[in-house]
Amino acid sequence: QEPQMPDGITRQGRFYCKTCDKEWILEKRKIPRMGKTVLSSEEKTEFLLDCLSLFNSSMGLEDLLFRFTELIQDRLKREKIAIFIANLELGDIRLAYYSARQKSLQRAIKRIHIDYDLSFGVLVESMAKRESKFYCLSEQSHPFYKFYSDLTGTKSQLIIPILYANTAVGMLTVDYDDEDYSDYIEDQEILQLVVGQFAVSLRNSLLYSRSQNQSKNFQSLHTAALTLSKLYLDNHDEMIRMILLTLSGIVESNVACLIEKPKTVMTVKVFKLLRDLDNFQISTETSMVNVATLFHLLNAKESFTIDPKEYPIFETLGVIGKEI
Q1: What is the DSSP string of 171-187?
Q2: Are the C-beta atoms of 50 and 43 separated by less than 8 Å?
Q3: Is the pLDDT of residue 32 over 70?
Q4: Which neighbouring-strand residues pair with 187?
Q5: Most CB atoms within 10 A, among 12, 60, 101, 253?
Q6: Is the confidence at residue 30, as pLDDT, over 50?
Q7: CB 81 within 8 A of CB 175
Q8: Helix and strand element counts for the chain (H, E)
Q9: β-strand partners of 87
């Protein structure tokens, strides 16, 4: 009798044989299977040492992601590698880096964001459960997976959560152009050995990047404050009118006044803004008043409501009753 090649489907470590109509559980080989991704013991050791050397180097986030994905591409012979980073505060997962031989594809896929929501399917589930997962995109119902498959040509994908202090801060994915379940096993084994150390390096790079951004923001705020200060000095009266206009818009008042008292003179400058709410007209007036008429007000420590009859100067200014 001639030997026959069984016909069937291999899925999740099981072989469904159509020839004998039985299900077979596959046992892991004790010797390496032949294939393009198999690394010898020496090659695995070399890959691990290169990764450790990379993670111990001080570098920016973009450089770290580029060099790590490039190392995976070179050693494991995988063309499409993605690294997602989660922002748990915002409930957002962004595609931080996508490495592909096709540079046009690398540019096209750069701005992908997904919600940290279990309705997104296996990507978020894998992070939430902190478990590696291999799956076929055709099995997922969320429209994102069809979009991703059409865009990248990916048929199946290996997900490895990036865990820091037992919390998923992101995930590493390897894209495959077919649905062969035998491809991912050794990829998963070798990548799980290095992804823990990568998580530490990734977090350090994120903290450094965040501190750099905060420093830039502080410098921008400082520059803006200096600019506003100069504008105030160069355009003093106009800046005061802008303040009054803003305040009158918030409280929707007809009259708003701002009293400015220089320390070295006995007169105060009163800026008054008149706002006609019915006709949408705005006008401003400026007048000088003797400081003695407002001495009590200028020394007040708390807000209170004045009676214009007690301060005739306010009646002159057109203020009927105002909390100051």
Answers
A1: EEEEEESS--TTSHHHH
A2: no
A3: no
A4: none
A5: 253
A6: no
A7: yes
A8: 9, 12
A9: 92
